[in-house]
Target: Phosphoribosyl-AMP cyclohydrolase
Amino acid sequence: MLSDSISWIKNLQFDKNGLLPAIAQDYKTNSILMLAWMNADALYETVRTKKAVYWSRSRNRLWRKGEESGHVQIIHEIRTDCDKDVILIKVEQTGGISCHTGRNSCFFLRLDKSKTDISEDIDRLIWEETDTVLKDPKYIYK
Amino acid sequence: MLSDSISWIKNLQFDKNGLLPAIAQDYKTNSILMLAWMNADALYETVRTKKAVYWSRSRNRLWRKGEESGHVQIIHEIRTDCDKDVILIKVEQTGGISCHTGRNSCFFLRLDKSKTDISEDIDRLIWEETDTVLKDPKYIYK
Model:
């Protein structure tokens, strides 16, 4: 990869598959939109185009976020952490929808808190769906 | 592991090492504090004790956040994403310091934006240190 030779990319600690987790955060609300993965080329193209590009592990190819839905993520800031093994991008989320379910954020499953008051009940918690579906997915992906 | 038999833990998609990335977010400011990893036992203990417990990949053992520094993370909410392969915890960060460098957040390295206006300069970007060191690390770890 061309991007491997670039100093600020070489500084990063990619995992043994050549990937880093990348967190997308709304630059205005600070809402965490999603976590996906980037390789060196995805990160380089993200910086070059100022739009989020990930590496799709399921499709094994670059994933230009919004390529089908139009819900692109415009880059406002890029950070890494003290270990240089995670990327944080602050983005403007086009359409306000980052999740394929039509929600603002992919993190819409909340561990039910109502039952956590009694420790004996911890084994029976559930992931509750929350947050509003802003657009039916069948109208997002034509 | 005992925790493997619990329904809401079995619902999650751990990676082949039995781990999930876990993002810690300040429950008040929405600041992203850090990303670490959890296995089933770490997550179960996090819920049971209402304090963040991670799996340390370098030390290969449970890492009760704040066990040395006192900077524990008190759990306010736990979420997962649409793929159930990432955990998001909203926490109250004791001492306001999550990073071993003495900063609020581990994400204090920002890709220099001043040079991104000309695409030819992308190869010469640097990771700039930013954010205030709130406490000298030598006073955090006795």
In short: Chain A has a mean pLDDT of 92.
